[in-house]
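User: Predict the complex.
Assistant: Input components as received:
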Amino acid sequence: MGKLKAGWPAWAAIVAQILTHVGALLPLAWLLWETWQGQLIIDPVKEITTRTGKTALILLILSLACSPVNTIFGFKQALRLRRPLGLYAFLYVGLHFLTFLGLDYGFDLDLIRQDILDQRYVLVGSAAGLLLLALAITSTQGWQKRLGKNWKRLHRLVYLASMVDILHFVWLTKDIREPLRYGGVVAFLLMVRVPAIKRAISKARYGLKARWKTRREA
Amino acid sequence: MVKINPSEITPEHVYLSRRKFIAKAVGMGAVVTSSLVLGACGGVLSPRRHELVEGSKEGQEPTPKGPTAEASPDGAVFPTVSATTDELGDPLTSFEAISNYTNYYEFTTSKEGVAYLAQDFKTSPWTVEVGGLVHKPKTFDTDDLLKFPQEERIYRLRCVEAWSMVIPWLGFPLAKLLEEVEPMSKAKYVRFETLYDPDQMPGQKRAGYNWPYVEGLRMDEAMHDLTILATGLYGKALLPQNGAPVRLVVPWKYGFKSIKSIVKIDLVEEMPVSLWMASAPHEYGFYANVNPEVPHPRWSQATERRIGEIKRRETLLFNGYGEEVAPLYEDLDLTEWY
């Protein structure tokens, strides 16, 4: 019975932690290396914008996946990865925004206002960025204590941020199939959170586990 | 060591086709001088053009036969351009960028992925069927196309995605080809079609677009001297990713109007529906003239990034060719007819 409760071995949690930090920093290292090597030759600004944006989205999705991973596989330690994954996502959002503001538009605010501020993908992208900024600031334990019950409510905004992020992607691209694939993943991860569905999955998992256990004992 | 002026070098594919032509001519007992005479360059602010013609031209002395591309039949005559900038003084985009950054959805939607997927694309044999409302329909093969006097045209190319390049094309005015088939007076538009061959063009297997690629021009646009059929760039035959063996180039319109790998040209009465008009009518119109004042519904067109530069630059009305083409649209509301 004790084994059933413990579930995953301790080393799995350590491996997951290492993978999270290394995996989240690798795209940045790779981007810096390629920039340094001059391999982003053709349109480097576009390349940096696209890569930081896409990495941010993937990390955000991975942070959304933590809770479903616990629901489906009973891997409780995944819940501890939500904060670092969210913060890494915000790091890339920041780089993405700075690339847009500085590299692409040379901090020329007039040009940005005339040229692009009324574009809907810029508006929703900025909205998603602001949401994530609020969540990043309040991600510390201090804020968690200060906000108490409201902290959880506030951080549910990440669901909204991820949906707005998908919209940003859909609106800026010419070929919407790719953002729709990401959108499908986000939809699935949000669906698993619906209480009834979540309960059904947990129940099924315990059922499977129990059956597996009895078979092993038999 | 004799210094070779790049403009004296014959473009590889023109040279190769010329050799065939010479062989035929010699067989008939004719004598053909294969010296190259340089045509006059355009004025300061008209697009750079540079004729590459056979024999002597009126009022000009034939250039003495000097070192030419014949010294290197493998085509190591690269790059052959008559100028290093466009008429506005902006430098040519590198050959590397032009040939590795292309929108060609028949292969893939990834601009960097086209060159690899298109490397084995078969461009020979190839024919372009010209018909519809014409008196003399004709099918041209690539040799026929290269018999039109080839010129170099240095044009800006402005993609609807807000990036741009400066490209030294080789080709000839579309008008020359259309004159040969003698359009009927009721022909109002020209409709172009790309090859449909999903085995060679994997992108055509994907649903979502109504292949083959179709584009169209109004008759006066098609007959305009700036409108060319390109067969090469940087002095070499077109590479598959750039639309080999023959493509349209309409420099004052967004790049997607310049249809690639053409197999069919029809003169028609009704305005053709292009692939982009069919797939997203509220985003892409028939005209697609470069216009900083008319934003695409999803992104601005006020600025662009020249490939090779970091900071954005302002987009010019008609891509900077307003002097030549604005008269075509005097009676047209450019916001309504985007």
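DSSP finds eleven helices and no strands in chain A.
Let me know if you want any component modeled separately.
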